[in-house]
Request: fold
Amino acid sequence: MELFDKKKNNTEKQEKQTEKTNQKSYQPLGACIVTKSLLSGTSRLKWMFRENNGIGTGWVALGDTDTQEYINQAENLTVVDFSLLMEVEPAVRNVFYMHIGADLEFISDGKYFVDTRTGEEIWEPVKHPLQIAFERNLEFLNQETYDAVFFQNLFRKTEKLERVAVGQVDLPTGRVVLADPMAYLGNEKYQTVLEKEIPEGSYDVELSIMRSALAGIRIAAARLKITDEIHLRYEIAMPKGFEPTDLQKPGVFSFFEVDTGLACFADASTAEEYKVFLEEWKQEHPEGNLYQDYFSYLFAENAKSDLAVKVGAGNFLLWKLPQSGKRLVMFASGMGDGIYSAYWGMDQNENITELVIPFMNPEYF
Reply:
């Protein structure tokens, strides 16, 4: 008993010292279960598996000398932050984001893991599932065209998606502008005025709200609804002076850029008036930040609206220009900054039915 107590005290000292070092080196990552032999240094990391055990990250780490009899005794196991396990063996950071169900053997001589189910060797950090989805989404976006079903499914109610009408945008000239309203709207060089025009009028803006366990609540797509006709095909919306066939030419692009995580539908005349609004606002607030000092309050107020509360998201805003009252609609752009293309929906008579900006492919999230 005295020998056990002595070992126990030494183990506790080791744990405290390691934890103290860990606090200097790492941020908390979540709890995991490890054997005390690993923490005390009497064994080296040999096995790791991740399960739904209700304890933090779900990771369990065992040493090379740990027998079944040893790990069956609860007093030989302890719960620590995963960052402490990284102090014991830094290579574990490579597998932190592996999926539930992962079962791994650690090869200490080479400092790599082997997936016991597939035999795959893991030498490099495994990416976070959200990072993987984000990269897949980047590759998916801005294609010249997609199947019509893809666009239609974006605005079809499912367990993950909900279509929300957020108000009307005024298009008195019928010339549609796509832009980041905080960075580029009103800037003739960087905003995108589309080549095709639509009849003058006011049109509904609909958002596809996605609820994802992986990405949270996001706007998967935005739609300018022009008619109720059936959309038989879609074509990429090109900037003024270009047609889809020009995409094959050097230096011709279809996308517009987002640098503040927001996009909008606006009319060309609205963009011109917005430019004047910006100039006047900046003269009055030379050190000000347009979003923080003006629009953040409006977004916060909108988040309290019945519609925003109902859908659980306030990341959109129907806004009127102070002078004319022309309306434009701002909305968060999926995962944030990036380059995005819009697509015209066309009916059987080749008339424009809608304009859609896809931000995210829900299948990836």
